[in-house]
Each structure stands twice: as C-alpha cells, then as structure tokens.
Design a protein that fits this description.
This protein is α/β, with parallel strands linked by helices and about 300 residues long. About 40% of the residues lie in helices and about 15% in strands.
Length: about 300
C-alpha cells in the first residue's frame, strides 16, 4: 500500500487512489479497535507531537488515542499557554520543534495556511488537524469512511451539505473529496452562509432546504461557527432552526434510507433536532467519531512508512 506524500495537509493534492488507500487501511483499524486488545507497534520508537493552537476536545483526543494505539510516544503541547502567547513566531516554533526531532506533528491552527508554512520548516511529517477556513482533511476522510460503510460505496451518491458552509473547513474538505469520488453535491443554507462562489466546486446551491433535500442519500449538517462570524449572518437561532435545522419532517424529503451526519460538536435545537441526532436508524454521528480514530491511525501509519523508507 503506497501513499506518495510526505505530509497530509489537505484533500486537494490527493488522488482517488490515495483516498482509497487511507480508507482501506482504516477499515483494518476499525476491526482492531473493536478487539479487546487495541494495540499495534507500527509507530513504535516514533514521537508524535500534537500542537493545537485552537481548542479541540474531539480531534485532539482522537489523534492522541490513534497515536497511542499504534505505539507512538505522544506528547500534547498546550499552545494556548505557550511561547506563541509571549511573541514567538511560527518559524521560531518550527526551529524549536526541529531540535526535539519529532517524527509526526499534528497541528490545528486558527489561520488558513499556517500548517502548510510549518510543514515547510520542520523535518518531520505534518498532519493538518484543521487550519482556519481552509481544510480539515482527516474529518473529510472519516466522513468518507462513514458514508462508504453505510452505503456500500463512495461514488455517484447525492449528498447534501447543510448550514454554515462559508466558515467551514469541514465543508471545504468534503466538497473536494466527495467531488473527486464522483458524487453529486448540494449545498443548502441561507445566501449569507452559502456564497455563490461555492458553485466553482461543482456543487448545486439551494437556499430552500425542502427543495435541496429531495431524494438525497446523505444529509451532512454543519455547526454554526459563531466564533468565526463578525456580523449578522442569521436573524436568530430560532429562525435558523425553523428554516435550516434538520428535523424528521425535513428528513422525510430525502431517500428513505438517507443517513444523517454532523462533524460535532452539535448545537441541538439549532442545527439538528436532538431526537433525530440520537436515532440509531438514521444518524451515523457516533460512527463518525469511531471512524475518526481509525482514519487517523491509517494516515499516521502511511506517513510513518514513508519516513522509514526515507531513513
């Protein structure tokens, strides 16, 4: 199994075969993670540093668990209280990291492009855990694995991505990945949150949820990213839920076997009805969390193979 990339910075530079390689390997880690013994030694002797310049419970815990299950030495750096706050530049941070000789660096940063800049300056493999509004590649990959397992395929599906597309790196990475895998993508939301330029990705844009959900196979809801909003993007959360929140009535417009997804954390009663989010017959939100650990294990495994081949 070959993966011809030194880093995993985004979906944009991955081919269909790259995506399939990660997902196929992740399948083996799903099986391993369901065993009583969840340990491998494929990263034994390697050091993984998690640097999260933005708070994240779910993604950081998932990467940490993935590294430990593969036998890596895992260190979490508390970047909110780090030297960055004291004026250290990202380049200075890279120089410091190089002196520590890590093998895998997992980075989340609030500014688009910061992870790519860091990757140019360090001597190890870098995984992008989300940078600004740019990309969140492992989230798109875990979403893809969840869809493939639920639907039996990852091509020629009708997929609706609903909500705050404008501020979402998850939406951007999913648009790129699902487009590469020949799916028909619909973006649904108010014009303030789904700008017309997203049509450049080949997506159909709807501002009416009842129209956009007709006959879709997958309904992917997005979190309202209020921390990235600097103006009146929605009139009120109550009005937003009425028009764009997912409930059973709106879901009935999709195919009878359509699945419901959400990258989390969820705002229940704003983006999605809580009962629907917990409906084990329609919602795959918990499966997404499980697939996240397996996908991150697969990505680090493939990058580590390249490190060892180059040594």
């Amino acid at each position: 199994m070959r993966f011809a990339h030194r880093h995993l910075l985004g979906i944009e530079h991955l081919s269909q075969s790259d995506i399939t390689a990660i997902l196929d390997l992740a399948e083996t880690y799903v099986d391993m993670n369901r065993q009583s013994t969840k340990r491998s030694d494929v990263l034994s002797g390697l050091t993984q540093i998690n640097m999260f310049f933005e708070n994240s419970t779910r993604t950081q815990a998932s990467f940490e668990l993935a590294g430990k299950r593969l036998g890596a030495d895992v260190m979490n750096m508390a970047m909110q209280a780090s030297s960055i706050k004291k004026g250290e530049t990202l380049i200075d941070t890279a120089m410091t990291l190089n002196a520590m000789h890590p093998d895998l660096l997992v980075v989340r940063h609030p500014h688009s492009g910061a992870v790519d800049l860091l990757a140019q300056k360090v001597n190890c493999a870098v995984l992008n855990a989300g940078d600004g509004r740019h990309e969140h590649p492992t989230q798109a990959l875990l979403d893809a694995l969840t869809i493939r397992r639920a639907k039996g395929r990852l091509h020629r599906l009708n997929i609706a991505i609903c909500g705050d597309v404008a501020h979402s790196r998850v939406a951007r990475s999913n648009l790129i990945l699902l487009g590469k895998m020949e799916n028909r993508i619909r973006l649904i939301g108010p014009p303030t949150l789904v700008p017309g330029q997203f049509a450049e990705f080949g997506a159909e844009i709807y501002d009416d949820m009842n129209e956009g959900l007709q006959g879709v196979d997958v309904v992917m809801m997005l979190r309202l990213q209020k921390e990235r909003m600097d103006g009146g993007f929605i009139p009120s959360e109550r009005e937003y839920y009425h028009r764009y929140g997912l409930n059973a009535e709106k879901l009935a417009l999709a195919k009878p076997d359509a699945i419901v997804m959400h990258p989390g954390p969820m705002n229940r009663g704003v983006e999605i009805d809580g009962t629907l989010a917990d409906d084990i017959n329609r919602s795959v939100i918990q499966e997404q969390v499980e697939m996240g650990v397996a996908v991150r294990m697969a990505a680090m495994d493939l990058l580590a193979r390249n490190l060892r081949d180059a040594a």
